[in-house]
Amino acid sequence: MTQEEEVKEIVLVKSSKNIAAEEEDDDQEFKNLSIFASKDRDFLLSPSGAQVKISELQGKVIGIYFSANWYPPCHNFTQLLVNAYEEFKNHPPGFEVVFVSSDEDLDAFNSYRACMPWLAIPFSDLNTKKNLNRRFDIEGIPSLIILQPNNYKEDAAIREGVELLYRYGIQVFPFTEERLQELQEKEREKHDNQTLMNLLTSQSRDFLLVQSTTKLVPVASLMGKTVGLFFSAQSCSPGVKFTPKLASIYQKIKQVLLEKGDEDFEIVFVSTDRDELSFNSYLETMPWLALPFNDPTIKNLIKHFDVQWIPGLIILGPDGKTVTKKGRNLVNLYQENAYPFTEARMALLEKQLDEEAKSLPKSEYHAGHRHELTLVSEGSGGGPYICCDCDEQGLGWAYQCMECGYEVHPKCMKPVEGGLQSTYQHS
Description:
Elements lengths: L2 H29 L11 E3 L5 E3 L7 E7 L4 H17 L6 E7 L4 H8 L5 E2 L5 H10 L7 E5 L13 H8 L8 H16 L3 H5 L6 E4 L5 E3 L7 E7 L4 H24 L4 E7 L4 H8 L5 E2 L5 H9 L7 E5 L5 E3 L2 H8 L8 H15 L5 E3 L6 E5 L8 E2 L6 E2 L3 E4 L4 E3 L19
Parallel strand pairs: 3-4, 4-5, 9-10, 10-11
Antiparallel strand pairs: 1-2, 3-6, 7-8, 7-11, 9-12, 12-13, 14-15, 15-18, 16-17, 18-19
């Protein structure tokens, strides 16, 4: 071995030792929970403002809660977490939450923390909050990171705490791998045994409502039909905007199927409205059926289908099984042609779109944007997006401005006439 090779080997050995030492330091930080501490602080704040030693968290399941007062979805999840916290904290091995604030001022921090029964990183400790955000690669809030007492290591952390709590509720505790596997297996069995009747009926109700009438429609009358479950609320502006489009497409699908005479399609409104007046007012705009306001089945459906955002349109096949949870997206992309929303139908429509895209201009100026837009597909820089013209979801082909992050559906393009194009040149 030459002298140069010996030097390289020594450098590599030292480098490997340094990396191993750094990893050991990181593991030690997790083991003694010093990720929550700073050089001059070894405590967290209790709801009353008292100092609680970080060491008191040892042996408990820990939830690191990244949230902020200014963001409404955080408030919604915080209430859910408060209820879960009160349930979890008395069950072995115990549970504690550490709030990591993204608020911009102390008043907002204190106001928000007033509804929290758990601990918090002091608002003034910017470095610790920044380090925790970076360590767990927090890209959005609310976010709940779960640490297990027998393995306080970064790579063992569960990063989907928000989604898991929404999905499984209090059954998710203690968030162990075994518990999650058990819940997933139960969920699979439930979906495998899913029928229209066990989804939409209860012991005290086997009917649906029709707007503007006192008529009650038996759930059994929907068996054998393709059914869309429309999750929305009058307070949801995207839902209110999407409703007339969906109503128009619903009528077109019904008309086509009426002429065929061998199939049928129905939609059931699943309301998340907060009061009955809003529910009734919103239902008046819909030509389809609905579950009664505040029916217990609604919460079951939200949990069963893991509905986290509205509006949403979940499609059930004639056998009552789930065809797709992306009904809203498919309606926006293909309108009435999306029916019956099956994978085979989507494959055919995607193939048609690919063929149509061959005749589209590779680049074009759009009346709503100053830069030239380039036609892209999912495989060439496109992908899921929100159309900047109609504010609805898009998938696959799009006209895109990389410089501005601007994307529109090809069908939403409003080409600028000849001589006007010069006014949209890049500056």
